[in-house]
């Protein structure tokens, strides 16, 4: 390898290590203790906001309010000459207003999920760069092709005592926990889309059947549930930070100085 390129690569490794250690010892602990105070009265997550922003009123079409009868007649004549199927949505042009408070909560949650993904990426890179290379045929090289649960299952069936099965202290297992946390964050980030789709279905029913009071109640309950879930999701993210911080700190010595022998302490 070219000397200049090797120097750049070494510098990249040092920066990745510094960034990973900063996340582990600074950013993660700060996230545990600097979360949103959901119980504070001025917090957007305070329970008093649950039913405040749900409007179950079915309003007349905005176009009908702003245009005259002559314009409406012209629109009617134009729609009569068109047989496109997409005009069927105009059969129920009434309006149910969106909840103006929930988008703010979804925005906060999405930002927190994205930050978790970025921070865990830094740790994954750092740990991956510290993992040693093993020769072909090494015991751990074969084990790396299976999951931890499969490895434990085989060892138990072979008669190996449970106390000889190494706990979750391998660097590969830490990386696996980080990846699972990222998957959880991605799923939580998508909760806003699911909320809007489910709410739109209830609103469409409310417009079509305004005389059915249960649809109005369903809309209120939906918003209340989403309000609760957004608060719970923030708590879930905080718990993820706590679990990951504890796991990494307990195994920081093995992560920084991985062993290179063939014992059970291998990563």
TrEMBL record:
<dbReference type="GO" id="GO:2000045">
    <property type="term" value="P:regulation of G1/S transition of mitotic cell cycle"/>
</dbReference>
<feature type="domain" description="Proteasome activator PA28 C-terminal">
    <location>
        <begin position="173"/>
        <end position="261"/>
    </location>
</feature>
<dbReference type="GO" id="GO:0008537">
    <property type="term" value="C:proteasome activator complex"/>
</dbReference>
<dbReference type="GO" id="GO:0061133">
    <property type="term" value="F:endopeptidase activator activity"/>
</dbReference>
<feature type="compositionally biased region" description="Low complexity">
    <location>
        <begin position="77"/>
        <end position="90"/>
    </location>
</feature>
<dbReference type="InterPro" id="IPR009077">
    <property type="entry name" value="Proteasome_activ_PA28"/>
</dbReference>
<dbReference type="GO" id="GO:0061136">
    <property type="term" value="P:regulation of proteasomal protein catabolic process"/>
</dbReference>
<dbReference type="Pfam" id="PF02252">
    <property type="entry name" value="PA28_C"/>
</dbReference>
<protein>
    <submittedName>
        <fullName>PA28-beta domain-containing protein</fullName>
    </submittedName>
</protein>
<dbReference type="GO" id="GO:0005737">
    <property type="term" value="C:cytoplasm"/>
</dbReference>
<dbReference type="InterPro" id="IPR036997">
    <property type="entry name" value="PA28_C_sf"/>
</dbReference>
<feature type="domain" description="Proteasome activator PA28 C-terminal">
    <location>
        <begin position="96"/>
        <end position="138"/>
    </location>
</feature>
<feature type="region of interest" description="Disordered">
    <location>
        <begin position="54"/>
        <end position="90"/>
    </location>
</feature>
<comment type="similarity">
    <text>Belongs to the PA28 family.</text>
</comment>
<dbReference type="GO" id="GO:0005654">
    <property type="term" value="C:nucleoplasm"/>
</dbReference>
<dbReference type="InterPro" id="IPR003186">
    <property type="entry name" value="PA28_C"/>
</dbReference>
<dbReference type="InterPro" id="IPR036252">
    <property type="entry name" value="Proteasome_activ_sf"/>
</dbReference>
<keyword id="KW-0647">Proteasome</keyword>
